[in-house]
Write a structure and sequence with these properties.
The complex is a heterotrimer of chains A (about 475), B (about 170) and C (about 120). Chain A is mainly α and about 475 residues long. Helices cover about 75% and strands about 0% of the residues of chain A. Chain A has a domain of about 220 residues. Chain A has a two-stranded antiparallel ribbon with strand order 1-2. In chain A, helix 1 runs antiparallel to helix 3 and helix 13 runs antiparallel to helix 18. Chain A starts with a helix and ends in an 8-residue tail after the last helix. With about 170 residues, chain B is an all-alpha fold. Among the domains of chain B are: about 80 residues, NADH-ubiquinone/plastoquinone oxidoreductase chain 6, subunit NuoJ (Four Helix Bundle (Hemerythrin (Met), subunit A), Up-down Bundle); about 45 residues. Chain B contains seven helices and no strands. The radius of gyration of chain B is 21 Å and the shape is globular. The relative contact order of chain B is 0.06. Chain C is mainly α. Chain C has two domains: about 60 residues, no CATH class; about 60 residues. The longest helix of chain C has 30 residues. Classes of the chains: A mainly alpha (about 475), B mainly alpha (about 170), C mainly alpha (about 120). Chains A and C meet through helix 1 of A and helix 4 of C.
Chain lengths: ~475, ~170, ~120
């Protein structure tokens, strides 16, 4: 069964809802664990169909290694976020069943985005993920900030989705097909110069919708407000989930549908990458709220990842194909950024504080969390020996290989800038005195997840070979022989 | 003739869409929107897609517009006037909107669209019956998006209840 | 094709003209004394100024139930639009289409059950 991960997620999403409806209070305590079971089964199902390369549902849905990579990523992210939201949601909402159900559906939407090979499926799965994300963002209905975040997120998303839909309709109009590879064939066979201009403008419109998911500048304005107002586990999800699968679709469209126009979209993406990293990092310098800081940081990270696509070159047998850089970066970023957010959640659960000023003296109040902040921030800044360094190494390496020296240099300068704001948090945690020196109690589940993410960040750095292989396999469908 | 009808409904649609944005009274805006929906339905008919036209009228002009009118009713009577945009914002919006319009006209005005492809030419659809053709495709090639839609609708209902309704004690043990 | 829709066009035109006549007529013969309350969105004949001071500025809380009903209506309206081509094409599709539709309806029935259980169908 090639769609077994999706089926499992859909069934578990509904199962959680049904149990929540008919179960007693005691039964409902088990809902998060049912959700986790669903993710674990979907993860196992993805491994079971590992190696498939099939196109199903009349070519609309590609179950290939590239999509399976993102399905692994989605189910891992889902599992970890459910585990850290158990403690967070307690006392904040009475509708935990709905939360986990909608969250399962959002992971389902992610797995579908990864496999979408038709304009229709792309639009449908992006909208699906968007709607579930809006709901999760505004889930705390008593919390004004959560409401505001959801509204801003929704309004911004609705407009970019309309622009993207217009772009998709233009692509269909000039090519006469919804299927990504058929569109590529139509473009390759056309001699009409007017098609070429449409083929440049339409993807630019589509980029609005994808840029919104990935939070590329200038489609990033929603991110700080949505990140700040959303329940923190949802913020963690928004910063890794939609971004990863947004990249999945961006890569798939760029590399299967538009490779013949590569010379045209590379400069555009290079410029977007530069302004995204620079703006994200510069604005992050001035933030006082940790969630907003991480929002701008995640905008900047999207800029770094985009460098990999700018430097993409699938010919030859170089270890720096650009594409593998993006995949490795995404995988490393998943654990790093989730880890950083779990630190935030750990503090917020105990004290409710989300301002950097409240982190003063953290080293005495919660030494474990303070120490892990260093690991995650080193990784986000791309300093060895952490996973983030491996990601940046391959992404910048691809840019250098393709001769984008300025771009790589700007990337490095930006990484240095980012060190300043990451270490502003570290400085508060280690070198300032706490107003209230009472120790912060971290719940066992959160401690466990912190340990797992930190271990993964370090493990990827010291033993990256499995991840290299994973990335190399996942690129196979783009015709790269490894 | 069919071109004439197209331009008639295109003009109505554009004017009504402008009216929706410009009119001060929200109910007038909603009615303009209804006009946009109906003119779009007419265009679907011109494109030999009467089923889509009927769906457009049923869902958009029927259901969604009712939703809008209810939402307008839920607004406080004193808030009929929307919050004004910043002056600079308005200027920039017009500037960028105009730039986008010029760009799109320049690009699409010269584009030569490919001739109709595939098995579903207007004649084939007319012979088979439009609704029949939609049904046959929807439940074979487009099965996946169709089933996904039902989950999306489920999420919509769950979502609206989560956001709009306080939880009652649903299980009386 | 257009001649087939000529009759639709005639009906549409009549549907516009008939309500337009009394509206235009009243526009000509009615006295014109506009005031704030008459121009309000949902004008019902009550003078807004007659309300007590505290009632004038409140956010009149209409029941959110109206909105919820409308939204449920939208969802099931969409369902009907899907059912129609299914019914028309059923003969050419065969029994598998029945399974497909049962799955689709099953999921929506879950949605209805959820709404019901949450008291959405009661006007309390």
């Amino acid at each position: 069964m090639l769609i077994s991960p999706e089926l499992i997620l859909a069934i578990f999403g509904m199962l959680v809802l049904v149990v929540d409806l008919i179960g007693r209070a005691r039964t409902r305590e088990w809902l998060p664990w049912v959700t986790v079971l669903g993710f674990v089964l979907a993860f196992a199902a993805t491994l079971y169909i590992w190696g498939s390369n099939a196109s199903i549902f009349a070519g609309m849905y590609s179950v290939d290694m590239f999509s399976l990579f993102f399905k692994l990523l989605a189910t891992i992210a889902g599992t970890m976020i459910v585990l850290v939201s158990i403690d967070y949601l307690r006392g904040r909402t009475t509708r935990q069943g709905e939360f986990f159900s909608i969250f399962t559906f959002s992971i389902l939407a992610m797995t579908m985005m990864a496999s979408s090979a038709s304009l229709l499926m792309i639009y449908l799965s992006i909208e699906f993920l968007s709607y579930t994300s809006y709901l999760l963002t505004g889930f705390l209905r008593e919390d004004k900030k959560s409401n505001e975040a959801a509204l801003k997120y929704f309004l911004y998303g609705a407009i970019t989705s309309a622009v993207m839909l217009y772009g998709l309709s233009l692509l269909y109009g000039v090519s006469g097909s919804l299927n990504l590879t058929d569109i590529a064939t139509a473009f390759a066979n056309t001699v009409d110069p007017s098609v070429r201009t449409v083929a440049l403008v339409a993807p630019a419109l589509v980029l609005a919708g994808l840029g919104f998911k990935i939070s590329l500048v200038p489609f990033h304005q929603w991110a700080p407000d949505a990140y700040e107002g959303a329940p923190t586990p949802v913020t963690a999800f928004l910063s890794v989930g939609p971004k990863a699968v947004g990249f999945a679709i961006l890569l798939r469209v760029a590399l299967t549908t538009l490779p013949i126009y590569q010379a045209s979209w590379i400069p555009l993406l290079a410029v977007i990458s530069i302004i995204t990293m620079t703006l994200g990092n510069l604005v992050a310098l001035r933030q006082t709220n940790i969630k907003r800081l991480l929002a701008y940081s995640s905008i900047a990270q999207a800029g770094y990842m985009l460098i990999g696509l700018v430097g993409v070159n699938l010919t030859g047998n170089s270890p720096f194909s650009g594409l593998n850089g993006v995949l490795i970066y995404l995988f490393a970023y998943l654990f790093t950024n989730l880890g950083a957010f779990i630190c935030v959640i750990a503090i917020e659960n105990a004290t409710g504080a989300v301002n950097i000023a409240d982190y003063a003296g953290l080293v005495r109040r919660a030494p474990f969390v303070a120490a892990l902040f260093i690991i995650f921030f080193l990784s986000l800044a791309g300093i060895p020996p952490t996973a983030g360094f491996i990601g940046k190494f391959f992404v910048f390496g691809a840019a250098l290989r393709e001769g984008f020296l300025t771009l790589a240099a700007i990337g490095v300068i930006n990484s240095i800038i980012s060190v300043f704001y990451y270490f502003a948090v570290i400085r508060a945690a280690f070198f300032l005195d706490a107003k209230d020196p009472s120790p912060i109690r971290i719940t066992p589940l959160v401690t466990a997840m912190l340990t797992v993410t930190a271990a993964m960040v370090l493990l990827i750095a010291v033993y990256p070979q499995p991840l290299f292989n994973l990335a190399a396999w996942s690129m196979g469908m783009f015709g790269v022989v490894k | 003739m069919s071109l004439l009808v197209f331009y008639l409904f295109a003009a109505i649609a554009v004017l009504a869409a402008l009216g929706m944005v410009v009119l001060r009274n929200p109910v007038h805006s909603a009615l303009s929107l209804a006009l946009v929906f109906v003119s779009l339905a007419a265009m679907y008919v011109l494109l030999s897609a009467p089923f889509i036209a009927v769906a457009q009228v049923m869902i958009y002009a029927g259901a969604i517009l009712i939703l809008f009118v209810f939402v307008i009713m839920l607004l406080s009577p004193g808030t009929d006037q929307g919050v004004g945009a910043l002056k600079a914002q308005r200027g920039l919006a017009i500037l960028f909107g105009a730039a986008l319009l010029v760009l799109l006209i320049a690009v699409l005005g010269g584009a030569v669209l490919p001739p109709t492809r595939g098995t579903f030419t207007p004649e084939a659809i007319a012979a088979e019956g439009d609704t029949q053709a939609v049904g046959a495709l929807l439940f074979t090639n487009f099965l996946l998006p169709f089933e996904i839609t039902s989950i999306l609708l489920l999420v919509a209902i769950v979502g609206v209840i989560v956001l709009a309704k306080k939880r009652q004690s649903i299980s009386k043990q | 094709m257009l001649d087939r829709y000529g009759i639709v066009a005639i009906f549409a035109l009549l549907a516009v003209i008939f309500p337009a006549i009394p509206l235009l007529l009243s526009l000509v013969i009615r006295p014109k004394k506009p005031n704030q309350s008459k121009k309000a969105t949902y004008e019902c004949g009550l003078e807004f100024e007659d309300f007590p001071e505290e009632a004038q500025n409140v956010w009149v809380q209409f029941r959110v139930q109206y909105y919820l009903f409308a939204l449920i209506f939208v969802v099931f309206d969409i369902e009907v639009v899907y059912l129609y081509p299914w019914a028309v094409a059923y003969n050419t599709l065969g029994p598998f289409a029945l399974v497909e539709m049962i799955v689709f309806l099953g999921i929506l029935i879950l949605a209805l059950a959820y709404a019901w259980r949450n008291g959405l169908l009661e006007w309390t």
